[in-house]
Amino acid sequence: xxxxxxxxxxxxxxxxxxxxxxxxxxxxxxxxxxxxxxxxxxxxxxxxxxxxxxxxxxxxxxxxxxxxxxxxxxxxxxx
Length: 79
Fold this sequence. Notes:
single chain; alpha/beta; three-stranded parallel sheet; 5 strands
């Protein structure tokens, strides 16, 4: 997500977290119980009309979660 889009989305949220390390994301999930954001295009219509309550955890900066691969009996997210 380009920086300008991240900034616009982040200002509409009451708490926006964007960790760059997987362990930091896991720690925040355990402690703050945020909603997970991985793209956010479904949130853009909401941004114009209201503030998005609660904590949000943006996982787009986590290299361990990039990519999706189909396997014979499951899907694999990340490397």
